[in-house]
Amino acid sequence: MPAKNNYNSIAFCYDRLSSLVFGNSIRQSQICLLPFITPGNEILIVGGGSGWILEEISKLHTSGLHIVYIEASSKMLELAKAKDIAENKVDFLNSYIEAYHTTSTFDIIITAFLFDNFNEKTASENFDKLNTLLKEEGKWLFTDFQISSRSSFYQQQLLKLMYIFFKHASNIEANQLVDMRFFFLKNGFKEVFSEYYYKKFIKSGCWVKLND
Ligand SMILES: C[S@@+](CC[C@H](N)C(=O)[O-])C[C@H]1O[C@@H](n2cnc3c(N)ncnc32)[C@H](O)[C@@H]1O
């Protein structure tokens, strides 16, 4: 059994697999949020996978960014280290976010298809942790699947199938999606931008942390 929420066994094919099922929606849903990054930002990326997002960020900002890239899977991290980051500075850490300790705070936090791995308790604890690492007025670029009773039969079955697959391949904790919107609203965030992909199965949001 692999370590929990660890994508080592499928790192080599994860990107191909996700584009086979979702076309370019997985990428577009994250790329659409990148204009919220401004020059000189301190950025924390958690569960960034193979690191293709680093190349997309570096196309928009060729220098001046400092990125901390935390990834639980050592194999995903190796792929990420090989990406073109132009003149930006990236600290690559092979760690669970749960085990990351720092006194730094960030202008931007990026989590994409990360919280769908977590059960309610882990989601809540990791949300609180990332919230403390985000500066006031900082932006959380959050992308993930969403489901509701109005979602199509196809999406509901696809989500079930994905949980069965990733339970076996990556020992993920979750059996269902946690409503992360609730956590953002409870903690005083404001959603300033949102976009939907794959017939609303995927939602991207830019959440701003407001002053207390
Ligand atoms: C579904 S993949 C998404 C990868 C990437 N964000 C993308 O959209 O292509 C989730 C990634 O999060 C990593 N991960 C899961 N739990 C984590 C945790 N607690 N801390 C850091 N990384 C984690 C996994 O190893 C995996 O690479």
What report would you give on this structure?
The radius of gyration is 16 Å and the shape is globular. The chain has helices spanning 14-22, 25-31, 52-60, 74-81, 120-133, 153-170, 180-186, and strands spanning 42-46, 63-71, 87-94, 106-112, 134-145, 189-197, 202-209. Helices cover 34% and strands 27% of the residues. It is α/β, with parallel strands linked by helices and 212 residues long. The protein has one domain (8-209): Vaccinia Virus protein VP39 (Rossmann fold, 3-Layer(aba) Sandwich). The mean pLDDT is 96. Residues 5-7, 26, 46-49, 70-73, 76, 96-98, 112-114, 117 line the site of S-adenosylmethionine.
Write the layout of secondary structure elements.
Blueprint: H1 14-22, H2 25-31, E1 42-46, H3 52-60, E2 63-71, H4 74-81, E3 87-94, E4 106-112, H5 120-133, E5 134-145, H6 153-170, H7 180-186, E6 189-197, E7 202-209
Parallel strand pairs: 1-2, 1-4, 2-3, 4-5
Antiparallel strand pairs: 5-7, 6-7
The chain binds S-adenosylmethionine.
S-adenosylmethionine binds next to strand 2.
**The CATH H-level homologous superfamily:** Vaccinia Virus protein VP39
Radius of gyration: 16 Å
Low-confidence stretches: none
Unique ligands: S-adenosylmethionine
The number of helical segments is: 7
Instruction: Enumerate the strands of the largest sheet in spatial order, edge to edge or round the barrel.
Output: 3-2-1-4-5-7-6
Annotated CATH topology = Rossmann fold
CATH class: Alpha Beta
End-to-end distance:
43 Å
